[in-house]
Design a protein that fits this description.
alpha/beta, four-stranded parallel β-sheet, 10 helices, 31% helix, globular, binds threonylcarbamoyladenylate, binds magnesium ion
């Protein structure tokens, strides 16, 4: 059956909830990126996520729940984790915490780890879908493995429109944040930034009153617990050169800021990192299509605030493969 693309009205959301309860996949908008959702308590349904994405390994997936009280049924919260949940949920932060033995979550969502990654999404369609389904929803970004995360329903259709197990794509328009959630782990060494994302490091540090450890600098425990950090995860087809202030004639330029009028594409002409984050994936796709054999040269993007996550995604896109 072909994948059904529907505007996310109440009837479509009810039908999507039914698909999920019956073990089929549904792609849906969140405030960060579109997710490829499955009933997180149904192991087969979760497995079909990996199959549809063609992931090379079983990376652990993010489990979406309707509210903090539901999250507490699945994982054990530390005091700092509670502070973060209260400050940022619903929203773009994911907490990796020890699974409770009584949790009905599929084991595959954790890819063999004794932790699970949980988040409460803010997007009203994601919230309605969780309520209609009545189950936690496991959802990685709704793109085939190695492709750029989708921020529009059309991106999902282009990447996964032929996946047999995907029943429906709910169209909720473009994602406002356009960057995946920030993933925080809580190994013994202390709160650790496992993946930079939509919520900036400084905002998180202000809430917990301490600096976040970095995944690679933290103990082996933290390093081991973030196997999803594939170097070439965000990968356009063209070769990419970073931190370029003067592109060569044979390159197509992805600019940032006001003094780059000659750039064919600009992440934010006004130099606004939030705008750049929202544009990032859609613009990488567009410039990759326009490159036509040329290399992409990317202007320097400052590393402050959301710039850390943007630079992380750009480095992955540029990684040799
Ligand atoms: O914004 C987002 O987070 C989107 C939307 C759909 O919610 N989802 C998303 O999921 O980006 P995914 O599967 O593409 O990324 C999951 C990230 C990976 O970096 C993975 O390694 C990490 O979360 N992760 C998940 N479970 C983990 C665990 N138990 N331990 C450590 N890292 C985990
Ligand atoms: Mg992804």
């Amino acid at each position: 059956m072909p994948v059904e693309l529907r505007d996310a009205d109440d009837a479509a959301i009810a039908a999507a909830g039914e698909h999920l309860r019956e073990g089929r996949l549904v792609a849906f908008p969140t405030e960060t990126v579109y997710g490829l959702g499955a009933d997180a308590t149904n192991e087969r349904a979760v497995a079909s996520i990996f199959e549809a994405k063609g992931r090379p390994t079983f990376n652990p997936l993010i489990v979406h729940v309707v509210e903090l009280a539901e999250a507490k049924r699945h994982v054990l919260f530390t005091a700092k984790a509670i502070l973060l949940a209260e400050a940022f949920w619903p929203g773009g932060i994911t907490l990796v915490l020890p699974r409770l033995p009584t949790s009905p979550l599929s084991l595959l969502v954790s890819a063999g780890l004794n932790t699970a990654a949980i988040r409460v999404p803010a997007h009203p369609i994601a919230q309605k879908l969780l309520k209609a389904t009545g189950r936690p929803i496991a959802a990685p970004s709704a793109n085939a493995s190695g492709e750029i995360s989708p921020t529009r329903a059309a991106h999902v259709m282009a990447s996964l429109g032929h996946a047999e197990t995907l029943a429906m794509v709910l169209d909720g328009g473009p994602c406002v944040l356009g960057l995946e959630s920030t993933v925080i782990g809580f190994p013994n060494a202390g709160p650790t930034l496992l993946r930079p994302g939509a919520v900036a490091r400084g905002e998180i540090e202000a809430v917990i009153g301490q600096a976040l450890l970095d995944a690679d600098a933290a103990s082996g425990e933290a390093g081991r617990s973030s196997p999803g950090q594939l170097a070439s995860h965000y990968a356009p087809r063209a070769n990419i050169r970073l931190n370029v202030s003067a592109p060569r004639d044979d390159e197509i330029w992805l600019g940032f800021g006001s003094n780059q009028k000659s750039a064919a594409f600009n992440l934010s002409p006004s130099g606004d990192l939030t705008e750049a984050a929202a544009n990032l994936f859609a613009m990488l796709r567009a410039i990759d299509d326009a490159a036509d054999g040329r290399n992409i040269a990317v202007a320097p993007v400052p590393r402050e605030g959301l710039g850390e996550a943007i630079n992380d995604r750009l480095a992955r896109a540029a990684a040799p493969r």
